[in-house]
Amino acid sequence: MFRTGLVSVSFRDKTPPEIIKAAAGAGLSCIEWGSDVHAPFSDTKKLAEIKKECGANGIACCSYGTYYRIGQNTDSELMPYIEAAKILGTDVLRLWCGTKGAAEYTQAEKKELYEQCVRLAETAEKENVKLCLECHNNTLTDTADETVKLMKTVNSPYFKMYWQPNQYKTEKENLDYAKKISGITEIIHAFNWEGDSKYPLGSAKEIWRKYLGVFGNGTVLLEFMPDGKIESLAGEAAALKKITEVF
After folding, report:
1. DSSP the chain
2. Which CATH superfamily is domain 2-244 in?
3. Domain ranges in the chain?
4. Looking at the whole model, is its pTM more than 0.85?
5. What pLDDT digit, counting tens, does each position of 60-110 carry?
């Protein structure tokens, strides 16, 4: 019911071949490639090499983790990311919405963001890709209610969400957010953080089964290791598979 994978930015100090080898060895099936270090949109040769290496190791590219910010980047700046995603073999792009938390936006500023989101969704439809916003701190989608308002306004199957728990909020708050966007969520990022502290995913099996139970199926990606080491990937992947095996 759940496809399990990895976010490449978990290991910014490793090369794509090293990450692919580790992911395959851990029994994961897909990778989200980050545009900042591993898969810059300007390096088409490297993008093609990543796709080829992934294919040779039975790994899919499930998504392209861009650092395009709606409200900061222009509409035209999105196209190189879309073209890069297609080279990698994915139709899912991760974007961030805004440069500050929802509570800091004026109504006029929100209106501008909404209008750009509508335009970008139209571009996504033309290009047959999905633009997905991360529910990240210090962006417009840092609260469930603001996210729902935005998604209802855009109202496009080509404009969707990611979900991840917020380490500074309670289990109840995180479950509430998950429930409100479960029907429009494309990808889930998995980790076990409490505030600024990081712990092995295996010690959070029960809460993660509650979280994933809200969604029922989908793609769930490990994001960062508790100790930052690629050697810990096998154990974290095993824990994720243990969590998802009940579905």
Report:
1. -EEEEEEGGGGTTS-HHHHHHHHHHTT--EEEEETTTT--TT-HHHHHHHHHHHHHTT-EEEEEEEEEEETTB-GGGGHHHHHHHHHHT--EEEEEE-SS-GGG--HHHHHHHHHHHHHHHHHHHHHT-EEEE---TTSGGGSHHHHHHHHHHH--TTEEEEE---TTS-HHHHHHHHHHHGGGEEEEEE--EETTEE--GGGGHHHHHHHHHHH-SEEEEE-S-TTS-GGGHHHHHHHHHHHHTT-
2. Divalent-metal-dependent TIM barrel enzymes (3.20.20.150)
3. 2-244
4. yes
5. 999 999 999 999 999 999 999 999 999 999 999 999 999 999 999 999 999
